[in-house]
Write a structure and sequence with these properties.
Chain lengths: 114, 313
């Protein structure tokens, strides 16, 4: 694994062929793409992957900026939630088996109520 | 879909190495420029056939091509990055959205705690003092309670009652914060607060603008013409109000400092808007009609003399 690589806005545009300078400016202004650090305006591999996704949504699914904003908000929520859920699962895993059993049966009884 | 290398040679994807070799020889023979000197386009076709064979004729390259590791030209296929591989890793905290889960706190303490810590960007430290969680309530108060102030008891989920002091002049949509009345703190941290969202109901007669109160009061024709002392309700009890002779509908009289008396603000006023109400037509008998006609002749009056002056219509 090499060191974390950073990209400038210009490098992002070179890297992602579907990305224009206007598009990038707009997405940054809308907060859809955010620099790793505000001062140096550097981006990383996650931003490239995110921009690829945004390009898919914009080009292949005809989403406008508002649509992209909604999708991104939901997507970020889902990822945040997934992470927290995963962390919670790991925390539960690290408990003694009787605690794990108690949690599992409590979950089952909540499902029963719903 | 672009033509696959198997299509170029005219073989199926599961063709054996032998079949591929045979197919290549056959295709190469019929397209090789030197073997077909007069055939146009044969050179390009032959190049394609050779290139295809160079890959799927080689066991290792064929495997990599099948797995999508290299493309039809033998180039390393560009590994397209997917955002999900990055999302949620330590490097993408700037995209994390903890605010959207604030409501989880109302239903699950463990999630409230998780998101609280995540929001603060803290690593969970079990022994650190943590402030308790804020609790949210909503309280509907009557117009008069909000205007005059008072006390209300709010039933807590644990069965206890929380005394809520309503300050005079409380506005609709305001939030009262009762310090330390939320959940208890952890490891010696301070308790959270109770946050009470206030909805103020309307009143049948009183209206409110800031700390001023207005009310519309009906008066009779006689009271309007001759003047009168009438009783008017205020937030602080009924008061006598002098209606001057010759009062009109819409005229506003002020009861100084009889509006909302909020702490720390000058008292508001109460504005009384007069509304002249006439009796049924039957009450206008011949005597009064004759008197009015005579009176109108003596005092001609155009009620609409200045009404529409200078107004674009």
């Amino acid at each position: 694994m090499k060191d974390v690589e950073f990209f400038t806005q210009e490098e992002l545009i070179v890297h992602v062929s579907r990305l224009s300078a206007d598009r990038l400016t707009c997405w940054i202004a809308e907060g859809l793409v955010r620099a790793v650090d505000d001062r140096d305006q550097r981006f990383d591999a996650a931003d490239i992957a995110r921009i690829e996704l945004l390009c898919d949504l914009a080009d292949d699914f005809d989403l406008n900026t508002e649509g992209l904003g909604i999708v991104c908000t939901l997507l970020d929520q889902v990822h945040t939630l997934r992470n927290q859920l995963l962390n919670l699962g790991k925390a539960v895993d690290s408990q003694p088996s009787d605690v794990r059993e108690a949690i599992i049966s409590a979950l089952a009884s909540i499902h029963g109520r719903d | 879909m672009a033509e696959s290398l198997y299509d170029v040679l005219g073989v199926s994807r599961d063709a054996s190495a032998d079949e591929i070799k045979k197919a290549y020889r056959k295709a190469a023979k019929s397209h090789h420029p030197d073997l077909n000197p007069g055939k146009t386009g044969s050179e390009d076709r032959f190049k394609a056939i050779s290139a295809a064979y160079a890959i799927i004729g080689d066991e290792e390259l064929r495997g990599r091509y099948d797995r999508g590791e290299i493309d039809a030209s033998g180039q390393e296929a560009q590994q397209r990055p997917y955002y999900r591989e990055h999302a949620g890793t330590a490097g993408t905290g700037r995209y994390a959205d903890h605010e959207s889960f604030a409501d989880f706190g109302d239903q699950s303490d463990i999630f409230a705690e998780l998101f609280r810590r995540a929001r603060a960007g803290e690593r969970a430290q079990a022994n650190r003092p943590m402030p308790g969680r804020d609790r949210h309530y909503s309280l509907s108060v009557s117009f008069l309670e909000a205007a005059r102030g008072g006390e209300r008891m709010l039933a807590m989920p644990d069965g206890s009652d929380l005394k809520v002091t309503i300050p005079a002049g409380l506005r609709d949509g305001q939030t009262l914060r009762l310090k330390g009345k939320g959940d208890g703190g952890f490891n010696g941290g301070p308790a959270g607060d109770a946050l009470i969202d206030i909805a103020v109901q309307n009143h049948a007669l009183f209206r409110r603008e800031g700390d001023n109160i207005s009310i519309t009061v009906p008066i009779s024709l006689t009271e309007a013409a001759l003047g009168a002392k009438i009783e008017v309700p205020t937030l602080h009890g009924a008061l006598k109000l002098t209606v001057p002779p010759g009062a009109s509908s819409g005229q506003k009289l002020r009861l100084k400092h009889q509006g909302i008396k909020a702490k720390g603000r000058p008292a508001g006023h109460q504005y009384v808007e007069l509304s002249v109400i006439l009796p049924d037509a039957g009450a206008f008998d011949d005597d009064i009609k004759a008197a009015l006609e005579a009176w109108s002749k003596r005092h001609p009056f155009d009620a609409r003399a200045t009404w529409a002056k200078g107004v674009d219509l």
